[in-house]
Structure to design on (181 residues):
């Protein structure tokens, strides 16, 4: 099965969830047109308080719908857009991508993967107990596991719709695993 976009979402105001749309427009170097997180500098409310001039490495949030399947088995009903993502996918191992991978979506949009989404306590406000399912600490190694999607920047704008194919272009050289951004 080819990797595909399953849903697209955006919101012009700060809220945890984002309503699904028929399409979204990605703007080069900015993010999703009309989305509160679009911009050249960081738009995450908490981080804007102490690092307002940082480059926005979180212009677009992607999440794999396979996570929703995993959560459903554990009794959590989560649908596209509800965890604040802009693009929901199926058939691609988002969390296994290297930093700098390019995702080609639809007719010409390109997203450069910058890192992992750092899940926050708002996830438990959305659904009690959900945070521990998308964020875990390995008891033996002390390493964190983040499952709540990836972040990226827009390298080439374009319209993205549910059903669009996603093609991955790996970066040259040694691959760096994703870290929180």
């Amino acid at each position: 099965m080819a990797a595909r976009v399953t849903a697209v979402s955006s919101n012009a105001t700060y809220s945890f969830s984002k309503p699904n749309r028929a399409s979204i427009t990605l703007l080069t170097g900015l993010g999703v047109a009309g989305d509160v997180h679009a911009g050249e500098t960081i738009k995450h409310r908490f981080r804007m308080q102490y690092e307002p001039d940082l480059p926005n490495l979180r212009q677009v949030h992607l999440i794999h719908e396979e996570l929703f399947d995993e959560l459903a088995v554990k009794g959590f009903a989560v649908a596209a857009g509800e965890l604040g993502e802009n693009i929901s996918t199926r058939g691609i191992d988002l969390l296994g991508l290297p930093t700098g991978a390019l995702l080609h979506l639809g007719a010409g949009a390109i997203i450069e993967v910058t890192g992992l989404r750092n899940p926050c306590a708002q996830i438990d406000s959305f659904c009690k107990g959900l945070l521990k399912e998308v964020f875990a600490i390995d008891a033996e190694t002390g390493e964190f596991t983040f499952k709540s999607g990836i972040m990226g920047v827009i390298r080439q704008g374009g319209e993205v719709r549910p059903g669009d194919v996603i093609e991955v272009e790996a970066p040259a050289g040694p691959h760096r695993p994703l870290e929180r951004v």
Summary: The chain has a mean pLDDT of 93. DSSP finds four helices and 13 strands in the chain. The CA atoms of residues 26 and 103 lie 13 Å apart.
